[in-house]
Amino acid sequence: MSAPPAEPAARIELRQERDVAAARIAVSRAMDAMGARALRKTRFVTAVSEIARNALDHGGGGVLEVYRLERPLRIMIRCRDEGPGIADLDQAMTDGFSTARSMGKGLGGARRLVEAFRIESRPGSGTTVEMEAKP
Amino acid sequence: MSEAASIYSVDKVLLVAIRDNITDTDIINLQEDLSERIVNEAARGVVIDIAALEIVDTFVGRILAQLSSISRLLAAETYIVGMRPAVAMTLVELGMDLPGSKTALSLSHALRSLKAKGLA
Ligand SMILES: Nc1ncnc2c1ncn2[C@@H]1O[C@H](COP(=O)(O)OP(=O)(O)OP(=O)(O)O)[C@@H](O)[C@H]1O
Ligand SMILES: [Mg+2]
């Protein structure tokens, strides 16, 4: 993925469960600062929660950065981990697929909830997810 | 009792208020506390209040589904109340419309339904 466009507005280390809540709060604040509408914020923060939890649960922890992009104004997050990566991305994005005996709705759901969704992953080299939404 | 949720007794109904930062560990405690109280207090109704939740992701969605199933198995009719409209729309898009759970708009709506059935 290309270089981040600017300094992040927030950067959260995802090491334990409460860091997922910290990521949600940071994104929620950044969207409030943009005057985001309630439904857009709920959708985006929910997607962020899924991706941050995946980085923690499947990626062994990671880092989430929040960016404010201009022209047109939008929010972007980048979530990186250096975990085992995903061998088959199409399969992982499919609702119902989980290697954790969970529901497997996180990745597919997150993609439906945001305006732009990019994922990059290779076995052994970790996973990076970028998501964007209008305020 | 875990900090991420508290259980109150109102008119023989157990009211569970879920807070925003609930974790895996809290859930186990909450499931235990709630099932013990249903049995000990012979509660016939449970109301799970999620008004404090700004979002419900798949993690919390699963917690809600599990809590409803546990209470139902212990013969307590269970309602989820206080869901924000934006949360409902988001849950549908996640593919989590909580099929096994009854919902009511507010605590008083849920209590009225439970009273009408003689469960409160
Ligand atoms: N950051 C990651 N690193 C490694 N594997 C991942 C990562 N994110 C997702 N995966 C893989 O993709 C699968 C699907 O992810 P998804 O979030 O859809 O479901 P889940 O996390 O298993 O369950 P749910 O999110 O519904 O509780 C996971 O089971 C895991 O195998
Ligand atoms: Mg997941």
UniProtKB/TrEMBL annotation, chain A:
Cross-referenced Pfam families: HATPase_c (PF02518)
Domain Histidine kinase/HSP90-like ATPase: 42-132
Recorded superkingdom: Bacteria
Protein name: Anti-sigma B factor RsbT
Highest classification ranks of the organism: Bacteria, Pseudomonadati, Pseudomonadota, Alphaproteobacteria, Rhodobacterales
UniProtKB/TrEMBL annotation, chain B:
Lineage top rank: taxon: Bacteria
Domain STAS: 3-114
Pfam families: STAS
Protein name stated in the entry: RsbR, positive regulator of sigma-B
Organism this protein belongs to: Limimaricola cinnabarinus LL-001
